[in-house]
TrEMBL record:
Source taxon at top rank: Eukaryota
Protein name stated in the entry: Thioredoxin domain-containing protein
Domain Thioredoxin: residue ranges: 2-157
Organism: Photinus pyralis
UniProt keyword list: Antioxidant, Oxidoreductase, Peroxidase, Redox-active center
Phylogenetic classification of the source organism: Eukaryota, Metazoa, Ecdysozoa, Arthropoda, Hexapoda
InterPro entries reported for this sequence: AhpC/TSA, Peroxiredoxin_AhpC-typ, Thioredoxin-like_sf, Thioredoxin_domain
GO molecular function, one term: peroxidase activity
PROSITE patterns documented for this protein: THIOREDOXIN_2
Transmembrane portions of the chain: none
Family: Belongs to the peroxiredoxin family.
Function noted in UniProt: Thiol-specific peroxidase that catalyzes the reduction of hydrogen peroxide and organic hydroperoxides to water and alcohols, respectively.
């Protein structure tokens, strides 16, 4: 399994929107790659999620273990029933080659109804093609999209800025300044909204808003 901070592979795959070379398709955006059970419910949820992701410069791509033909039929049914346009690419990983590369199987590889059972997973890749976040659920569970959005907001807020999020942080909330080595005047210049709190131990805790 890939570790956080490692370079995500440059996937080449057939999708419902045509062939994709991952790095070229990403361009300079962030990317959210999802492995999930693609059906009418998840497709509708992803339509709304995609719009929120685009506001954050994040592209979405889905891995499905169906054939391209069956995916296109499913999309046609969904669009006729819901009027939702499926404008994100769905990878047809019918032979499970990408699932093997990304380790999307449970601990024991087994067959159920003539199909491998893969986990539900999310991978967040930054514009430098580094894996910044991943989460995994048992295949019976769906993804928590609100948590994914929260993580994206957090990573984009702290990325390369000597900042960290406190517990239960949400967008717009107070951030912790974690640099101990910059002099006070440089910290104040970098973080004009910085506040300081002296702890009982004598150490100083610094906070800021973006």
């Amino acid at each position: 399994m890939l570790k956080l901070g490692e370079i995500f592979p440059n996937i080449k795959a057939e999708t419902t929107l045509g062939p994709v070379q991952f790095y070229d398709w990403m361009e300079t955006s962030w990317c959210l790659l999802l492995s999930c059970n693609f059906n009418q419910v998840s497709a509708s949820e992803l339509v709304g999620l995609r719009n929120r992701l685009l506001e954050r410069n994040v592209k979405v791509i889905v891995v499905s273990h169906n054939s391209l033909h069956s995916l296109n039929e499913c999309i046609s049914d969904i669009q006729s029933k819901t009027n939702h346009l499926i404008q994100y690419p769905i990878i047809a990983d019918e032979k499970y080659s990408l699932a093997l590369d990304l380790d999307l199987f449970e601990s024991e590889l087994y067959l159920e109804k003539d199909a491998f059972k893969t986990i539900t997973a999310a991978f967040l890749i930054d514009p430098n093609k580094k894996l910044q976040f991943q989460m995994a659920y048992p295949p019976e569970l769906a993804l928590n999209f609100e948590e994914i959005i929260r993580v994206i907001d957090a990573l984009q807020a702290v990325n390369g800025k000597c900042l960290a999020t406190p517990a239960e942080w949400t967008a717009g909330g107070e951030l912790l300044i974690v640099s101990k080595y910059l002099p006070h005047n440089k910290l104040k210049k970098q973080f004009p909204h910085m506040t300081e709190k002296v702890l009982p131990s004598g150490s100083i805790e610094r906070h800021t808003y973006l």
